[in-house]
UniProtKB/TrEMBL annotation:
It comes from Marinomonas transparens. Pfam families: Alpha-amylase (PF00128). InterPro entries: Amylosucrase, GH, GH13_cat_dom, Glyco_hydro_b, O16G_dom_2. This is Alpha-amylase family protein. Gene3D superfamilies: Glycosidases (3.20.20.80), Golgi alpha-mannosidase II (2.60.40.1180), Oligo-1,6-glucosidase, Domain 2 (3.90.400.10). Residues 98-524 form the Glycosyl hydrolase family 13 catalytic domain. One of its GO terms (biological process) is carbohydrate metabolic process. One of its GO terms (molecular function) is amylosucrase activity.
Length: 637
Protein backbone atom coordinates (compact mmCIF):
# COMPACT_ATOMS: atom_id res chain seq x y z
CA UNK A 1 0.00 0.00 0.00
CA UNK A 2 1.28 3.47 -0.91
CA UNK A 3 1.31 5.86 2.03
CA UNK A 4 -0.04 9.37 1.41
CA UNK A 5 2.59 11.21 3.46
CA UNK A 6 0.97 14.60 3.01
CA UNK A 7 -2.35 13.34 4.38
CA UNK A 8 -0.69 11.44 7.24
CA UNK A 9 1.43 14.50 8.05
CA UNK A 10 -1.61 16.79 8.25
CA UNK A 11 -3.49 14.33 10.45
CA UNK A 12 -0.51 13.77 12.76
CA UNK A 13 0.22 17.50 12.98
CA UNK A 14 -3.36 18.30 14.04
CA UNK A 15 -3.37 15.58 16.70
CA UNK A 16 -0.01 16.59 18.10
CA UNK A 17 -0.84 20.29 18.18
CA UNK A 18 -3.91 19.56 20.28
CA UNK A 19 -1.73 17.72 22.82
CA UNK A 20 1.08 20.29 23.16
CA UNK A 21 1.32 22.50 26.22
CA UNK A 22 1.67 26.05 24.89
CA UNK A 23 0.30 27.77 28.00
CA UNK A 24 3.70 29.21 28.91
CA UNK A 25 4.01 31.12 25.61
CA UNK A 26 2.85 34.69 25.10
CA UNK A 27 0.20 35.28 22.46
CA UNK A 28 2.84 36.52 20.03
CA UNK A 29 5.18 33.60 20.71
CA UNK A 30 2.33 31.13 20.37
CA UNK A 31 1.10 32.56 17.07
CA UNK A 32 4.62 32.64 15.63
CA UNK A 33 5.39 29.10 16.77
CA UNK A 34 2.12 27.64 15.48
CA UNK A 35 2.71 29.35 12.12
CA UNK A 36 6.19 27.87 11.76
CA UNK A 37 4.96 24.49 12.91
CA UNK A 38 2.18 24.53 10.33
CA UNK A 39 4.60 25.19 7.48
CA UNK A 40 7.44 23.10 8.85
CA UNK A 41 5.80 19.93 10.15
CA UNK A 42 5.25 18.25 6.79
CA UNK A 43 8.94 18.64 5.73
CA UNK A 44 9.92 17.18 9.11
CA UNK A 45 7.44 14.32 8.95
CA UNK A 46 8.37 13.55 5.34
CA UNK A 47 12.02 13.08 6.27
CA UNK A 48 11.44 11.18 9.51
CA UNK A 49 9.00 8.67 8.06
CA UNK A 50 11.59 6.84 5.88
CA UNK A 51 13.83 6.61 8.94
CA UNK A 52 11.37 5.69 11.65
CA UNK A 53 8.07 4.79 10.00
CA UNK A 54 8.48 1.22 11.25
CA UNK A 55 8.95 2.32 14.89
CA UNK A 56 5.80 1.80 16.94
CA UNK A 57 6.70 4.73 19.22
CA UNK A 58 7.33 7.36 16.52
CA UNK A 59 4.25 9.36 17.58
CA UNK A 60 5.60 9.57 21.14
CA UNK A 61 9.01 10.81 19.93
CA UNK A 62 7.36 13.41 17.70
CA UNK A 63 5.39 14.73 20.66
CA UNK A 64 8.53 15.02 22.79
CA UNK A 65 10.29 16.76 19.92
CA UNK A 66 7.54 19.32 19.31
CA UNK A 67 7.20 20.09 23.01
CA UNK A 68 10.94 20.79 23.06
CA UNK A 69 10.46 23.27 20.22
CA UNK A 70 7.65 24.99 22.10
CA UNK A 71 9.62 25.19 25.35
CA UNK A 72 12.60 26.57 23.43
CA UNK A 73 10.59 29.67 22.47
CA UNK A 74 10.56 30.85 26.11
CA UNK A 75 14.28 30.45 26.71
CA UNK A 76 16.46 33.53 26.70
CA UNK A 77 19.21 33.82 24.11
CA UNK A 78 22.08 36.33 23.97
CA UNK A 79 21.73 39.63 22.15
CA UNK A 80 20.88 38.86 18.53
CA UNK A 81 22.82 40.19 15.57
CA UNK A 82 21.39 43.35 14.01
CA UNK A 83 21.55 42.14 10.41
CA UNK A 84 18.34 40.19 9.84
CA UNK A 85 18.65 39.84 6.06
CA UNK A 86 17.59 36.38 4.96
CA UNK A 87 20.50 35.91 2.55
CA UNK A 88 23.20 37.66 4.59
CA UNK A 89 25.71 35.03 3.43
CA UNK A 90 25.68 36.41 -0.14
CA UNK A 91 27.17 39.77 0.85
CA UNK A 92 30.69 40.84 -0.15
CA UNK A 93 31.10 42.05 3.45
CA UNK A 94 31.47 38.48 4.69
CA UNK A 95 34.95 37.37 5.73
CA UNK A 96 35.47 34.56 8.23
CA UNK A 97 38.14 33.11 10.46
CA UNK A 98 38.28 29.79 12.37
CA UNK A 99 40.03 29.80 15.75
CA UNK A 100 40.71 27.68 18.78
CA UNK A 101 39.73 29.77 21.81
CA UNK A 102 42.78 28.80 23.88
CA UNK A 103 45.22 29.09 20.97
CA UNK A 104 44.24 32.62 20.00
CA UNK A 105 43.38 33.82 23.52
CA UNK A 106 43.42 32.02 26.87
CA UNK A 107 39.72 31.55 27.44
CA UNK A 108 36.33 32.86 26.34
CA UNK A 109 36.62 35.94 28.50
CA UNK A 110 39.94 37.00 27.01
CA UNK A 111 38.69 36.18 23.50
CA UNK A 112 36.33 39.14 23.90
CA UNK A 113 39.49 41.27 24.05
CA UNK A 114 40.37 40.01 20.56
CA UNK A 115 37.22 41.48 19.00
CA UNK A 116 39.03 44.73 18.08
CA UNK A 117 41.55 42.60 16.18
CA UNK A 118 38.76 40.83 14.30
CA UNK A 119 37.24 44.22 13.47
CA UNK A 120 40.54 45.62 12.24
CA UNK A 121 41.05 42.56 10.05
CA UNK A 122 37.53 42.81 8.65
CA UNK A 123 36.10 39.61 10.17
CA UNK A 124 32.34 39.25 10.63
CA UNK A 125 32.08 35.45 10.79
CA UNK A 126 33.89 33.75 13.68
CA UNK A 127 34.05 29.96 13.84
CA UNK A 128 35.01 28.73 17.30
CA UNK A 129 36.52 25.28 17.23
CA UNK A 130 34.99 22.75 19.70
CA UNK A 131 34.87 24.23 23.17
CA UNK A 132 32.71 21.83 25.15
CA UNK A 133 33.61 19.36 27.85
CA UNK A 134 35.85 16.63 26.43
CA UNK A 135 38.16 13.89 27.76
CA UNK A 136 41.47 14.87 29.34
CA UNK A 137 44.45 14.37 27.04
CA UNK A 138 43.60 13.35 23.51
CA UNK A 139 40.10 14.48 22.60
CA UNK A 140 40.58 14.72 18.82
CA UNK A 141 41.00 18.46 19.15
CA UNK A 142 37.76 18.74 21.12
CA UNK A 143 35.67 16.66 18.70
CA UNK A 144 35.06 14.00 21.34
CA UNK A 145 32.33 15.75 23.29
CA UNK A 146 31.52 14.58 26.80
CA UNK A 147 28.81 17.15 27.46
CA UNK A 148 27.25 19.40 24.81
CA UNK A 149 25.78 21.57 27.56
CA UNK A 150 28.96 22.43 29.46
CA UNK A 151 31.83 24.58 28.25
CA UNK A 152 35.23 23.02 28.93
CA UNK A 153 36.33 24.38 32.35
CA UNK A 154 39.68 25.56 31.01
CA UNK A 155 37.84 27.84 28.56
CA UNK A 156 35.25 29.28 30.93
CA UNK A 157 31.53 28.85 31.52
CA UNK A 158 28.32 28.82 29.54
CA UNK A 159 27.76 32.41 30.71
CA UNK A 160 31.16 33.38 29.27
CA UNK A 161 30.12 31.89 25.92
CA UNK A 162 26.84 33.80 25.96
CA UNK A 163 28.66 36.99 26.88
CA UNK A 164 31.03 36.44 23.97
CA UNK A 165 28.09 35.88 21.61
CA UNK A 166 26.49 39.13 22.77
CA UNK A 167 29.76 41.04 22.37
CA UNK A 168 30.26 39.64 18.86
CA UNK A 169 26.70 40.38 17.80
CA UNK A 170 26.99 43.99 18.95
CA UNK A 171 29.87 44.28 16.48
CA UNK A 172 27.89 42.48 13.73
CA UNK A 173 30.08 39.36 13.92
CA UNK A 174 28.29 36.04 13.56
CA UNK A 175 29.31 33.16 15.83
CA UNK A 176 29.74 29.66 14.42
CA UNK A 177 29.82 26.54 16.59
CA UNK A 178 30.41 22.89 15.81
CA UNK A 179 27.48 20.48 15.94
CA UNK A 180 29.28 17.16 16.50
CA UNK A 181 26.36 14.84 15.95
CA UNK A 182 27.94 11.67 14.52
CA UNK A 183 29.48 10.63 17.83
CA UNK A 184 30.02 11.47 21.48
CA UNK A 185 33.01 10.76 23.65
CA UNK A 186 32.96 7.55 25.64
CA UNK A 187 32.69 9.75 28.75
CA UNK A 188 29.33 11.23 27.75
CA UNK A 189 26.56 10.39 30.22
CA UNK A 190 24.82 8.30 27.54
CA UNK A 191 27.95 6.23 27.00
CA UNK A 192 28.60 5.89 30.72
CA UNK A 193 25.07 4.56 31.22
CA UNK A 194 25.59 2.14 28.33
CA UNK A 195 28.79 0.87 29.95
CA UNK A 196 26.81 0.16 33.11
CA UNK A 197 24.49 -2.09 31.13
CA UNK A 198 21.58 0.29 30.64
CA UNK A 199 19.76 -1.20 27.63
CA UNK A 200 18.10 2.10 26.74
CA UNK A 201 21.42 3.88 26.36
CA UNK A 202 23.16 0.94 24.75
CA UNK A 203 20.56 1.55 22.05
CA UNK A 204 22.07 5.01 21.56
CA UNK A 205 25.22 3.41 20.11
CA UNK A 206 26.19 0.37 18.05
CA UNK A 207 26.93 -2.64 20.23
CA UNK A 208 27.62 -5.88 18.35
CA UNK A 209 29.54 -9.14 18.49
CA UNK A 210 32.82 -9.80 16.69
CA UNK A 211 31.25 -11.49 13.69
CA UNK A 212 28.88 -8.63 12.94
CA UNK A 213 31.64 -6.05 13.42
CA UNK A 214 33.80 -8.03 11.02
CA UNK A 215 31.00 -8.02 8.44
CA UNK A 216 30.73 -4.24 8.60
CA UNK A 217 34.52 -3.87 8.44
CA UNK A 218 34.55 -5.60 5.06
CA UNK A 219 33.03 -2.53 3.38
CA UNK A 220 33.74 0.54 5.53
CA UNK A 221 36.89 2.59 5.08
CA UNK A 222 39.50 3.22 7.74
CA UNK A 223 39.78 6.88 8.72
CA UNK A 224 42.68 6.82 11.19
CA UNK A 225 44.59 3.64 10.24
CA UNK A 226 47.69 4.58 12.23
CA UNK A 227 45.62 4.72 15.41
CA UNK A 228 43.35 1.70 15.01
CA UNK A 229 42.52 -0.75 12.25
CA UNK A 230 38.88 -1.16 11.33
CA UNK A 231 35.95 0.88 12.63
CA UNK A 232 35.24 -0.84 15.92
CA UNK A 233 36.65 -0.97 19.43
CA UNK A 234 36.38 -4.11 21.51
CA UNK A 235 35.33 -3.78 25.16
CA UNK A 236 36.01 -7.10 26.92
CA UNK A 237 34.14 -5.96 30.03
CA UNK A 238 31.04 -5.44 27.89
CA UNK A 239 31.67 -8.53 25.76
CA UNK A 240 30.95 -6.34 22.78
CA UNK A 241 32.36 -4.25 19.96
CA UNK A 242 31.36 -0.57 19.74
CA UNK A 243 31.33 1.39 16.49
CA UNK A 244 34.11 4.01 16.60
CA UNK A 245 34.68 5.44 13.11
CA UNK A 246 37.38 7.88 14.20
CA UNK A 247 38.99 7.21 17.59
CA UNK A 248 38.25 4.53 20.17
CA UNK A 249 37.03 7.19 22.57
CA UNK A 250 34.49 8.51 20.01
CA UNK A 251 31.38 6.33 19.97
CA UNK A 252 29.17 6.62 16.88
CA UNK A 253 25.53 7.41 17.60
CA UNK A 254 22.86 5.02 16.36
CA UNK A 255 20.37 7.12 14.41
CA UNK A 256 18.23 4.13 13.52
CA UNK A 257 16.89 4.73 17.04
CA UNK A 258 14.42 7.68 17.00
CA UNK A 259 15.22 8.42 20.65
CA UNK A 260 18.74 9.35 19.54
CA UNK A 261 17.44 11.83 16.98
CA UNK A 262 15.21 13.53 19.56
CA UNK A 263 17.96 13.61 22.18
CA UNK A 264 20.50 15.11 19.77
CA UNK A 265 18.02 17.75 18.55
CA UNK A 266 17.63 18.82 22.18
CA UNK A 267 21.43 19.15 22.44
CA UNK A 268 21.41 21.17 19.21
CA UNK A 269 18.86 23.58 20.66
CA UNK A 270 21.11 24.08 23.67
CA UNK A 271 23.99 25.06 21.38
CA UNK A 272 21.70 27.63 19.78
CA UNK A 273 20.77 29.02 23.21
CA UNK A 274 24.42 29.96 23.62
CA UNK A 275 24.07 32.42 20.77
CA UNK A 276 25.37 30.75 17.63
CA UNK A 277 24.22 31.83 14.18
CA UNK A 278 25.68 28.92 12.19
CA UNK A 279 26.12 25.27 13.12
CA UNK A 280 28.88 23.33 11.39
CA UNK A 281 27.73 19.75 10.85
CA UNK A 282 30.78 17.67 11.65
CA UNK A 283 31.36 14.37 9.82
CA UNK A 284 27.83 14.42 8.41
CA UNK A 285 28.67 11.86 5.69
CA UNK A 286 29.01 9.12 8.32
CA UNK A 287 25.78 9.48 10.27
CA UNK A 288 23.78 6.62 8.74
CA UNK A 289 24.95 2.99 8.66
CA UNK A 290 23.75 0.02 6.61
CA UNK A 291 25.48 -3.34 6.40
CA UNK A 292 27.09 -4.13 3.07
CA UNK A 293 27.73 -0.46 2.24
CA UNK A 294 30.62 1.93 2.85
CA UNK A 295 28.38 3.61 5.45
CA UNK A 296 29.13 7.04 3.99
CA UNK A 297 26.85 9.37 2.04
CA UNK A 298 23.91 6.98 2.21
CA UNK A 299 20.50 8.30 1.08
CA UNK A 300 19.11 8.15 4.60
CA UNK A 301 21.92 10.39 5.80
CA UNK A 302 20.26 13.08 3.71
CA UNK A 303 16.85 12.28 5.22
CA UNK A 304 18.41 12.69 8.64
CA UNK A 305 20.10 16.02 7.89
CA UNK A 306 16.97 17.37 6.21
CA UNK A 307 15.03 16.38 9.33
CA UNK A 308 17.50 18.32 11.48
CA UNK A 309 17.08 21.31 9.14
CA UNK A 310 13.29 21.04 9.42
CA UNK A 311 13.72 21.19 13.20
CA UNK A 312 15.78 24.37 12.81
CA UNK A 313 13.13 25.94 10.59
CA UNK A 314 10.48 25.35 13.23
CA UNK A 315 12.43 26.13 16.40
CA UNK A 316 15.19 28.57 15.36
CA UNK A 317 14.75 29.68 11.74
CA UNK A 318 17.54 32.30 11.79
CA UNK A 319 20.23 29.64 12.31
CA UNK A 320 21.75 27.89 9.28
CA UNK A 321 23.75 24.72 8.76
CA UNK A 322 27.23 24.47 7.28
CA UNK A 323 28.20 21.14 5.74
CA UNK A 324 31.56 19.55 6.51
CA UNK A 325 31.57 16.82 3.87
CA UNK A 326 35.17 16.04 2.97
CA UNK A 327 34.19 13.37 0.47
CA UNK A 328 33.90 12.83 -3.29
CA UNK A 329 32.90 16.11 -5.01
CA UNK A 330 29.62 14.66 -6.33
CA UNK A 331 28.68 13.74 -2.77
CA UNK A 332 29.72 17.12 -1.31
CA UNK A 333 27.19 18.90 -3.51
CA UNK A 334 24.33 16.63 -2.48
CA UNK A 335 24.34 18.08 1.04
CA UNK A 336 23.85 21.64 -0.21
CA UNK A 337 20.33 23.01 -0.52
CA UNK A 338 17.65 25.17 1.06
CA UNK A 339 16.25 22.09 2.82
CA UNK A 340 19.62 20.76 3.99
CA UNK A 341 22.83 22.82 4.38
CA UNK A 342 22.80 26.47 3.36
CA UNK A 343 26.57 26.75 3.58
CA UNK A 344 29.22 24.21 2.65
CA UNK A 345 32.97 23.90 2.85
CA UNK A 346 34.58 23.80 -0.58
CA UNK A 347 37.25 21.08 -0.09
CA UNK A 348 37.61 20.46 -3.82
CA UNK A 349 38.77 23.97 -4.63
CA UNK A 350 41.06 24.02 -1.60
CA UNK A 351 42.81 20.79 -2.55
CA UNK A 352 43.10 21.63 -6.24
CA UNK A 353 44.56 25.07 -5.62
CA UNK A 354 47.42 23.31 -3.84
CA UNK A 355 47.57 20.76 -6.66
CA UNK A 356 47.88 23.58 -9.19
CA UNK A 357 50.71 25.21 -7.27
CA UNK A 358 52.63 21.94 -7.14
CA UNK A 359 52.14 21.08 -10.81
CA UNK A 360 51.97 24.66 -12.11
CA UNK A 361 49.03 23.37 -14.18
CA UNK A 362 45.34 24.27 -13.85
CA UNK A 363 43.54 21.72 -16.04
CA UNK A 364 42.38 19.53 -13.15
CA UNK A 365 41.22 22.61 -11.23
CA UNK A 366 39.29 23.93 -14.24
CA UNK A 367 37.53 20.74 -15.17
CA UNK A 368 36.68 19.86 -11.57
CA UNK A 369 35.16 23.27 -10.81
CA UNK A 370 33.34 23.28 -14.13
CA UNK A 371 31.51 20.17 -12.98
CA UNK A 372 31.14 20.80 -9.26
CA UNK A 373 31.20 24.52 -8.43
CA UNK A 374 27.59 25.41 -9.29
CA UNK A 375 25.22 24.98 -6.34
CA UNK A 376 21.53 25.89 -5.74
CA UNK A 377 20.36 29.49 -5.50
CA UNK A 378 20.67 31.09 -2.07
CA UNK A 379 23.32 28.66 -0.89
CA UNK A 380 26.98 29.52 -0.54
CA UNK A 381 30.41 27.95 -0.50
CA UNK A 382 32.78 28.47 2.40
CA UNK A 383 36.07 28.86 0.53
CA UNK A 384 39.28 28.18 2.41
CA UNK A 385 42.97 27.51 1.84
CA UNK A 386 43.77 25.86 5.16
CA UNK A 387 41.78 24.72 8.18
CA UNK A 388 42.33 22.90 11.48
CA UNK A 389 42.35 19.57 9.59
CA UNK A 390 44.62 17.88 7.09
CA UNK A 391 44.56 18.21 3.28
CA UNK A 392 43.10 15.22 1.43
CA UNK A 393 43.21 14.94 -2.35
CA UNK A 394 39.51 14.33 -3.02
CA UNK A 395 38.96 15.01 -6.72
CA UNK A 396 36.94 12.86 -9.12
CA UNK A 397 39.26 10.25 -10.69
CA UNK A 398 37.04 10.15 -13.78
CA UNK A 399 38.17 13.71 -14.51
CA UNK A 400 41.87 13.07 -13.87
CA UNK A 401 41.67 9.92 -16.02
CA UNK A 402 40.36 11.97 -18.95
CA UNK A 403 43.35 14.27 -18.53
CA UNK A 404 45.76 11.34 -18.57
CA UNK A 405 46.51 11.68 -14.86
CA UNK A 406 46.69 8.51 -12.79
CA UNK A 407 44.79 9.32 -9.60
CA UNK A 408 46.72 7.02 -7.30
CA UNK A 409 50.11 8.06 -8.62
CA UNK A 410 49.24 11.76 -8.62
CA UNK A 411 48.08 11.68 -5.01
CA UNK A 412 51.33 9.93 -4.10
CA UNK A 413 53.26 12.69 -5.87
CA UNK A 414 51.31 15.44 -4.05
CA UNK A 415 51.89 13.80 -0.69
CA UNK A 416 55.60 13.53 -1.45
CA UNK A 417 55.71 17.11 -2.75
CA UNK A 418 53.96 18.74 0.19
CA UNK A 419 55.90 16.79 2.81
CA UNK A 420 59.18 17.90 1.24
CA UNK A 421 60.15 14.46 -0.04
CA UNK A 422 60.06 15.42 -3.73
CA UNK A 423 63.21 16.98 -5.12
CA UNK A 424 62.77 20.69 -5.71
CA UNK A 425 59.57 20.93 -3.66
CA UNK A 426 59.02 24.26 -1.94
CA UNK A 427 56.72 22.88 0.79
CA UNK A 428 57.51 21.86 4.36
CA UNK A 429 54.41 19.90 5.31
CA UNK A 430 53.99 16.86 7.55
CA UNK A 431 52.28 13.55 6.63
CA UNK A 432 49.11 12.56 8.47
CA UNK A 433 47.65 9.08 8.95
CA UNK A 434 49.65 7.17 6.39
CA UNK A 435 47.88 3.89 5.64
CA UNK A 436 50.37 1.00 5.95
CA UNK A 437 48.39 -1.09 3.45
CA UNK A 438 47.89 1.26 0.49
CA UNK A 439 50.36 4.03 1.31
CA UNK A 440 47.66 6.67 1.28
CA UNK A 441 48.08 9.69 3.53
CA UNK A 442 47.11 13.31 3.92
CA UNK A 443 49.13 16.49 4.50
CA UNK A 444 49.37 18.92 7.43
CA UNK A 445 50.98 22.32 7.72
CA UNK A 446 50.32 26.05 7.91
CA UNK A 447 49.66 28.12 4.82
CA UNK A 448 53.08 29.78 5.04
CA UNK A 449 55.03 26.55 5.51
CA UNK A 450 53.20 24.72 2.72
CA UNK A 451 53.64 27.68 0.37
CA UNK A 452 57.41 27.73 0.85
CA UNK A 453 58.15 30.41 3.45
CA UNK A 454 59.64 27.97 5.96
CA UNK A 455 62.13 26.51 3.49
CA UNK A 456 63.02 29.90 2.05
CA UNK A 457 63.75 31.34 5.50
CA UNK A 458 65.77 28.26 6.51
CA UNK A 459 67.87 28.58 3.35
CA UNK A 460 68.05 32.39 3.60
CA UNK A 461 67.07 32.56 -0.06
CA UNK A 462 65.35 35.85 -1.06
CA UNK A 463 64.19 34.50 -4.42
CA UNK A 464 62.48 31.50 -2.86
CA UNK A 465 60.95 33.76 -0.22
CA UNK A 466 59.60 36.09 -2.88
CA UNK A 467 58.03 33.12 -4.67
CA UNK A 468 56.54 31.81 -1.42
CA UNK A 469 54.88 35.12 -0.53
CA UNK A 470 53.55 35.44 -4.07
CA UNK A 471 52.03 31.95 -3.79
CA UNK A 472 50.23 33.08 -0.64
CA UNK A 473 49.04 36.18 -2.50
CA UNK A 474 47.74 34.07 -5.41
CA UNK A 475 45.93 31.62 -3.12
CA UNK A 476 44.29 34.38 -1.11
CA UNK A 477 43.56 36.36 -4.24
CA UNK A 478 41.53 33.47 -5.60
CA UNK A 479 39.95 32.67 -2.25
CA UNK A 480 38.78 36.23 -1.62
CA UNK A 481 37.40 36.71 -5.13
CA UNK A 482 35.50 33.46 -5.76
CA UNK A 483 31.76 33.38 -5.02
CA UNK A 484 31.22 32.40 -1.39
CA UNK A 485 32.50 33.34 2.05
CA UNK A 486 36.29 33.32 2.36
CA UNK A 487 37.43 31.66 5.58
CA UNK A 488 40.87 32.21 7.11
CA UNK A 489 42.43 29.80 9.56
CA UNK A 490 44.01 31.19 12.71
CA UNK A 491 47.65 32.13 12.27
CA UNK A 492 47.50 32.12 8.49
CA UNK A 493 46.50 35.80 8.74
CA UNK A 494 49.81 36.28 10.59
CA UNK A 495 52.00 34.10 8.37
CA UNK A 496 52.90 31.67 11.17
CA UNK A 497 55.07 28.66 10.36
CA UNK A 498 54.75 25.03 11.41
CA UNK A 499 55.33 24.39 15.09
CA UNK A 500 56.49 21.00 16.41
CA UNK A 501 55.93 21.66 20.13
CA UNK A 502 53.13 19.09 19.97
CA UNK A 503 55.73 16.31 19.75
CA UNK A 504 56.56 16.87 23.43
CA UNK A 505 52.93 16.32 24.47
CA UNK A 506 51.96 12.62 24.79
CA UNK A 507 48.31 13.51 24.12
CA UNK A 508 49.17 15.13 20.78
CA UNK A 509 52.40 13.60 19.51
CA UNK A 510 50.66 11.02 17.30
CA UNK A 511 48.40 13.60 15.66
CA UNK A 512 50.44 15.68 13.23
CA UNK A 513 47.55 18.12 12.68
CA UNK A 514 48.85 19.88 15.77
CA UNK A 515 51.78 21.11 13.66
CA UNK A 516 49.42 23.84 12.41
CA UNK A 517 47.54 24.33 15.69
CA UNK A 518 50.01 26.70 17.28
CA UNK A 519 49.41 28.77 20.41
CA UNK A 520 49.61 32.30 19.06
CA UNK A 521 51.79 34.68 21.08
CA UNK A 522 52.53 38.37 21.25
CA UNK A 523 55.62 37.68 19.16
CA UNK A 524 53.47 36.29 16.33
CA UNK A 525 51.39 39.47 16.28
CA UNK A 526 54.50 41.66 16.53
CA UNK A 527 56.13 39.93 13.56
CA UNK A 528 52.94 40.43 11.57
CA UNK A 529 53.05 44.16 12.33
CA UNK A 530 56.65 44.49 11.09
CA UNK A 531 56.62 45.20 7.32
CA UNK A 532 60.22 44.01 6.98
CA UNK A 533 59.35 40.42 7.96
CA UNK A 534 57.72 37.75 5.79
CA UNK A 535 54.93 37.65 8.35
CA UNK A 536 54.39 41.38 8.01
CA UNK A 537 54.22 41.15 4.23
CA UNK A 538 51.72 38.29 4.41
CA UNK A 539 49.55 40.04 7.00
CA UNK A 540 49.45 43.22 4.90
CA UNK A 541 48.50 41.54 1.63
CA UNK A 542 45.67 39.67 3.37
CA UNK A 543 44.37 42.83 5.05
CA UNK A 544 44.53 44.75 1.79
CA UNK A 545 42.56 42.09 -0.08
CA UNK A 546 39.90 41.95 2.62
CA UNK A 547 39.39 45.70 2.53
CA UNK A 548 39.14 45.70 -1.28
CA UNK A 549 36.61 42.86 -1.19
CA UNK A 550 34.45 44.53 1.48
CA UNK A 551 34.53 47.82 -0.40
CA UNK A 552 33.34 46.50 -3.77
CA UNK A 553 29.89 44.98 -4.27
CA UNK A 554 31.07 43.12 -7.39
CA UNK A 555 32.33 40.49 -4.95
CA UNK A 556 28.70 39.75 -4.13
CA UNK A 557 27.83 39.04 -7.78
CA UNK A 558 26.10 35.70 -8.20
CA UNK A 559 26.82 35.29 -11.93
CA UNK A 560 30.04 33.28 -12.34
CA UNK A 561 31.89 31.91 -15.35
CA UNK A 562 35.22 30.15 -15.73
CA UNK A 563 37.43 31.65 -18.43
CA UNK A 564 39.81 29.46 -20.43
CA UNK A 565 42.95 31.28 -21.54
CA UNK A 566 45.76 30.10 -23.78
CA UNK A 567 48.03 28.65 -21.10
CA UNK A 568 47.64 25.69 -18.76
CA UNK A 569 49.51 27.75 -16.14
CA UNK A 570 46.70 30.31 -15.91
CA UNK A 571 43.44 30.18 -13.98
CA UNK A 572 40.77 32.77 -14.73
CA UNK A 573 37.10 33.48 -14.11
CA UNK A 574 34.53 36.22 -14.46
CA UNK A 575 31.80 37.55 -12.16
CA UNK A 576 29.03 39.87 -13.31
CA UNK A 577 26.36 42.00 -11.71
CA UNK A 578 23.96 44.43 -13.36
CA UNK A 579 26.55 47.08 -14.25
CA UNK A 580 29.88 45.64 -13.15
CA UNK A 581 32.21 42.87 -14.29
CA UNK A 582 35.15 41.37 -12.46
CA UNK A 583 37.79 39.34 -14.29
CA UNK A 584 40.32 37.45 -12.17
CA UNK A 585 43.49 36.03 -13.74
CA UNK A 586 46.07 34.03 -11.75
CA UNK A 587 49.43 32.66 -12.90
CA UNK A 588 50.16 29.49 -10.91
CA UNK A 589 53.74 29.22 -12.17
CA UNK A 590 57.06 31.00 -11.57
CA UNK A 591 57.26 31.87 -15.27
CA UNK A 592 56.16 34.83 -17.37
CA UNK A 593 53.13 33.75 -19.41
CA UNK A 594 52.41 35.28 -22.82
CA UNK A 595 48.79 36.03 -23.66
CA UNK A 596 47.72 35.24 -27.22
CA UNK A 597 44.51 37.26 -27.03
CA UNK A 598 43.68 40.44 -25.10
CA UNK A 599 41.64 40.21 -21.91
CA UNK A 600 39.38 42.95 -23.25
CA UNK A 601 37.14 40.32 -24.86
CA UNK A 602 36.24 39.06 -21.37
CA UNK A 603 35.70 42.48 -19.79
CA UNK A 604 33.91 44.02 -22.76
CA UNK A 605 36.18 47.08 -22.95
CA UNK A 606 39.77 47.91 -23.82
CA UNK A 607 40.79 49.29 -20.44
CA UNK A 608 40.36 48.03 -16.91
CA UNK A 609 41.01 48.97 -13.32
CA UNK A 610 43.17 46.56 -11.32
CA UNK A 611 41.76 46.59 -7.81
CA UNK A 612 44.90 44.98 -6.39
CA UNK A 613 47.41 47.45 -7.82
CA UNK A 614 45.05 50.45 -7.76
CA UNK A 615 45.79 51.42 -11.35
CA UNK A 616 44.17 51.61 -14.76
CA UNK A 617 45.43 49.11 -17.34
CA UNK A 618 45.38 49.16 -21.11
CA UNK A 619 44.18 45.63 -21.84
CA UNK A 620 45.32 45.78 -25.47
CA UNK A 621 48.87 46.44 -24.24
CA UNK A 622 48.72 43.75 -21.54
CA UNK A 623 50.53 40.91 -23.28
CA UNK A 624 52.07 38.98 -20.37
CA UNK A 625 51.05 37.78 -16.91
CA UNK A 626 53.86 38.06 -14.41
CA UNK A 627 55.11 34.99 -12.47
CA UNK A 628 52.84 33.99 -9.57
CA UNK A 629 50.74 37.11 -10.13
CA UNK A 630 47.02 37.68 -9.77
CA UNK A 631 44.87 40.41 -11.30
CA UNK A 632 41.49 41.66 -10.10
CA UNK A 633 40.26 43.55 -13.17
CA UNK A 634 37.02 45.49 -13.22
CA UNK A 635 35.44 48.26 -15.27
CA UNK A 636 37.84 51.19 -15.64
CA UNK A 637 37.35 54.00 -13.14
Amino acid sequence: MVIDLSFESTKTHQRLLSELDLSHLTATQKASFIGRLESGFEPLFTQLYPLYGNCFDLYYHLKVLLQSFADFQKKKRPVQIKDNSEFWFESNKNVGIAVYVDLLADDLGSLIDKIPYFESLGINYLHLMPLYSAPEGNSDGGYAISDYRTVSPNLGTNKDLKDLASALHKKSIRMVLDFVFNHTSDEHRWAEAAKQGDKEFQGYYYFMDEQEASEYNQTVREIFPQIRRGSFTHYPELNSHVWTTFNSFQWDLNYSNPAVFVAVVEEMLHLILNGCDVLRLDALAFVWKEKGTVCENLPKAHNLIKAFKACLDIAAPKVVFKSEAIVHPDEVNKYIGADECTLSYNPLMMALLWESLATRQTQLLYQSLERSFQIPEHTTWINYIRCHDDIGWLWDDAISDRLGINGYGHRHFLNQFYTGQFEGAFAAGVPFQENPVNGDCRVCGTLASLAGVEKAVAQNDPVLLDHAIKRIRVLNGINFSMPGIPLLYQGDDLGVLNNDDYLADPAKEEDSRWVHRKKLTGKDFALAEDPTTPQGQIAKLIRDMIQIRKGNTIFAAQEFELITLNSGHLFAFKRRSANKTLVVVANMSEHLIQLTAPLSEHLGQDSAYNLLSNENIDLLALEKIQPLDILWLTNAE
